[in-house]
Amino acid sequence: MTETFDAEWLDQREPVDHRSRASAPLEPLRAWWTRRRASTVLDLGCGTGSNLRYLAAKLPAPQRWTVVDHDSQLLGRVRTPDADVKVRKVLGDLAVVGLAEVEGSDLVTASALLDLVSADWLRTLVDACVAARSAALFALTYDGTIGWPRGEDADDGLIRDAVNQHQRRDKGIGPALGPDAAPVAEELFRAIGYQTWLLASPWALAPSDAALSRALVDGWVRAASEMEPRDAERIRLWGQRRRAAAAEADFALVVGHLDLLALPPE
Fold this sequence. Notes:
The chain is of the alpha/beta class. The protein contains 10 helices and 8 strands. Helix 6 packs parallel to helix 8 and helix 9 (210-227) runs antiparallel to helix 10 (232-245). The radius of gyration is 19 Å and the shape is globular. The two termini are 33 Å apart. The model has no long low-confidence stretch (mean pLDDT 95).
């Protein structure tokens, strides 16, 4: 997988990610973990370890984590959060190395990943989870919705549609599923007998999140301009208006995400 992310961006989004994640899957996951006497977790596309920092505190100890990323600098920033949590770092791509690590993992997890992967890769991952009888928890998969509760702009639809087209481009392992990823993953797991929970985990951004909101707008402008170059000036002006809105006292922005828990039949 060739998609790369800046450490500053990951640091910026982590507090919002953590507060946005759906809490409902944690109770059935912990109950399953205890029945299974589970201890091993595989974190795919771990970045700097945000998913580890969130989830390790929510599961019973002891835990042994394998964290995989293709970026050595991000992987180098992963830290063990607790003495009862052991962490093994693996440098490699998700297409080969990540899938190979599923065997022997009680839980396979990722955050903000599924919308970047292809249908073929996802089917292979589900098959690997079935073979290992692994549970799966995939958090914060973008669902294609961008909302502006304080008022719509005439060009919001243009930007959203262009961004969602951009999301479906090849990120290194085939055409990405983009906003379709979480429902497709749920369908694949349910088809082979897994029990699933698919829950909303939207980012609800406020004036205190202005820096992250501006970074989002800048990224959307770049993506939309790539998809709709003839509308580049229109997109640039939209970006100016939305960056200015982020400084207003009543600013609000909602970016839709979904969390998926899939537990194997017992």
